[in-house]
Design a protein that fits this description.
285 residues; alpha+beta; Jelly Rolls; three-stranded antiparallel beta sheet; 40% helix; 20% strand
């Protein structure tokens, strides 16, 4: 294994100089070329998975993840790129003092940021928005050099600020899943999605989904549906609301969709459930 550094230390006082950027859309016919470039490259995968190596390190960069490629190091694809692969890329340079693997400990007033080479992005829509602004202005010729430098700086800061899932202790996984479960219990009647829950908790949707399934043995989508159906069952037995009113009160935008999900979970329609179980309700008052 190479002893070359993988952490990029960014001195935020010195300017980052942007070069160019693009959006790569794979046709599933080739693999990433093997080459060496003289600039840094930040890759952000929007869809699919990019299989690539840098020197003797192999990377599998999935959707919602970034990879930083160093100048002067050989990199290239390790397998053909899938047809669903789409990724943004941007080239930039910086002063060598900014890439020092051991920042000067005697300079406490210089703000250094440590950017891991391969990172899961908690809020991928934020970094994609920066890429889109860069590309739109680059296409129209409106991209000023200062603006380009600032946009790339913000991209790198976005990578740095994302919390690293690997740093979540094993004992904290249940806590994270419980946060998601509590959010569902409190917001089931609103138009929530797995992406919305992940955004509110500050985690990558795929990562949060894996942790939730590991702890609760179901997906976040299934958990949302189960909570809504659970509450709907109470309304069917404890109120005189119509099925349409219950569907709306439980967060379903369409009554027909509510009926379909209810049947999937309860193996009967809402009306049948009400008729079958209403007479079994015991008055405990």
């Amino acid at each position: 294994m190479s002893n070359q550094p993988s952490i990029l230390h960014l001195n935020m006082i010195s300017p980052i100089k942007a070069q160019n950027a693009g959006l790569f859309v794979s046709r599933g016919l080739a693999r990433h070329p093997t080459r060496t470039i003289d600039s840094h490259e930040l890759i952000f995968v929007k869809e699919g998975c990019l299989s690539i190596h840098e020197e003797d390190r192999d990377f599998e960069v999935h959707a919602g993840q970034t990879l930083h490629l160093w100048p002067g190091r050989v990199h290239g694809g390790t397998r053909p790129m899938p047809s669903d692969l789409r990724f943004y890329w941007v080239h930039f340079t910086l002063d060598e003092s900014m890439a020092d693997d051991q920042p000067d400990a005697n300079s406490p007033y210089i703000p250094f940021l440590r950017m891991p080479q391969h990172k899961i992005i908690n809020q991928p829509e934020r970094i994609e928005r920066l890429f889109r602004i860069f590309l739109d202005d680059q296409e129209t010729g409106a991209l000023h050099a200062y603006a380009a430098n600032l946009l790339v700086t913000l991209m790198l800061v976005e990578v740095v600020r994302s919390r690293e899932p690997a740093m979540v202790d094993e004992s904290d996984l249940k806590t994270l899943a419980t946060w998601a479960n509590t959010y569902i219990r409190l917001n089931y009647d609103r138009p929530i999605t797995t992406g919305k829950i992940a955004y509110e908790l500050g985690y990558n949707p795929d990562y949060l989904g894996r942790i939730y399934r590991q702890v609760y043995n179901c997906t976040l989508t299934e958990a949302i549906q189960k909570r809504r159906i659970h509450v709907a069952c109470h309304y069917l037995l404890d109120s005189e609301m119509t099925v349409e009113q219950i569907a709306d009160k439980c967060g379903f935008s369409e009554p027909d969709y509510f009926r379909r999900i209810f049947r999937r979970h309860m193996q009967m329609s809402p009306i049948t459930y009400r008729k079958q179980y209403a007479h079994m309700k015991i008055n405990t008052h």
